[in-house]
User: Fold Cell division protein DivIC from Algibacter lectus.
Amino acid sequence: MAKFNKNTSKYLKPFKNWFILIFTGFLIWMIFFDANSWVIHHELNSDIEALENEKEYYQREIENDNKAIKKLSSEDGLEKFAREEYFMKRENEDIYIIEYEDSLKVKQDD
Assistant:
């Protein structure tokens, strides 16, 4: 029994000092339990990073939309868009739509 106490007292000796004991408790409290803990800061930093990535994505989308608006603001750009997207035509024109087999969406029965 004395041998057991000797080994355990060797490892517990630093925790007999009040300063180390208080500092360890304070450190554990600040890392895990406090309102400003390291865990919460880590979560908030990851949220900030995700929001910044989302912000960059939306800024790129805004730039693309502004380019599209600029193209559609001219008469030629508007006519091209109407012809390509909505298959519109002038009065004396005929439109032929050619679809290839690999571009068709086939409904598959399971």
Summary: The radius of gyration is 35 Å. The chain has a mean pLDDT of 82.
